[in-house]
Description:
The chain is α/β, with parallel strands linked by helices. The protein is built from 15 helices and 14 strands. Helix 8 (about 200-230) crosses helix 11. The protein is globular. The termini are far apart.
Amino acid sequence: MKKMISIIGSGYVGVVTGACLAKLGNKVILIDIDEEKVKLINSGVATINEKGLSELLKCGNIEASSDYRRVAESEVIILCVGTHSEEDNSVCLQHLINATEQVSRVLNDKNDYYVIIVKSTVPPGTTEELIIPILQRSGKKAGREFGVCMSPEFLSEGNAVYDFMHPARVIIGEYDTRSGDMCYGLFQDFDVPILRTDLKTAEMIKLASNAFLANKISFINEIGNICKVLGIATRDVARGMGFDNRIGSKFLNAGIGFGGSCLPKDLKMLIDKAREIGYEPKILEATWNLNEKQALKPVSLLEKYVTLKNATIGILGLAFKPGTDDIRGSRAIEIVQVLLKEGALVKAYDPMAMENFSRLFPSVEYVSGEEALNSDAALIITEWEEFENLNYSGKVIIDGRGISKAKEARIYETVC
Ligand code: NAD
């Protein structure tokens, strides 16, 4: 049976979750404190660059509001606010706390049973130890007046609508069976494994999955660093490994490491949780440390060929990965910061992310791909497919991502 659903937080996860659940026939209201976002969504404009999202927003079953009172209409409330990193990389749960408090206030007077689903990524124990106590302040009890689930999201930016509609699995962490049944009802038509667990297992599945992917990237980067010194082609090594389906070829692209708003944050969340319980997570820490070092490798390689002061450096790729305009945690940020600090002039190109990047770095010149290559040297930071169509001949290229065509450059070096 289709449901009335409120989604709290209309960012990448919220707007995609809401739009997809609306497409599946549910009535969805997206709640966000950002009035601008609310206006855009209500006029059918996708607030993020995701294939198919605009069409879904026009399906008629979805609207947005900044008025929390609208939550009272719903029987399912999904928390999708950000759990971003602080300056010291520790996780900040304040948005989630605020959102839960606001939801709780509105639902105080609701007589019908409802279920709250946490979809934001959180450290194990958060739903039980932080979210439920806030929801129970009103005197209502979890398992009696309302249900609670934790159902992590695994969508990948750039492919988010497809990923939501075709997940590899659905994880439902449930406070009790009644809560889990409500959540199961949303996903039961998906022809994929649906795993029902307790709340903190679901939280851990998300963190462990992202930590594993992060580890796979740092692993191949470590192999790549060794290969570079030995004169071995890392990409061929990775290909050779990837044919083994126990290993698989995904996440084996050696280079400048992982960025974005999820992998670094989720890995750090797990490291902090382990330390909090007195466990030293050596593999996770090594994954983190190697990734930190990998980020600025292109700049030190660049310095072999050009003096940075007053040099013009081209940057190909600003998004944290291809297919998105999201620059959160992008390796381009650290690299451009250093280049500007060293007195270089930066010309950058990205098919989607220049507008977002220009808000952080107005002094960078934003140009076409060809024009970015028309520099003293250029760095490849994001593996956009279209970079395989540029003309690199005569150029000095430091490649952080493995663009085959760039090997035609006069000087070509990979990070590892
Ligand atoms: P985001 O920053 O894009 O969106 C968060 C939204 O919440 C923003 O629109 C913000 O205005 C809104 N918000 C903040 N406080 C609010 C409040 N009190 N009430 C209502 N709205 C509020 O974040 P995101 O990338 O969508 O990530 C959300 C969560 O999902 C995070 O925990 C993240 O780790 C997780 N996640 C993200 C991805 C991804 O690819 N982005 C994938 C899986 C899981």
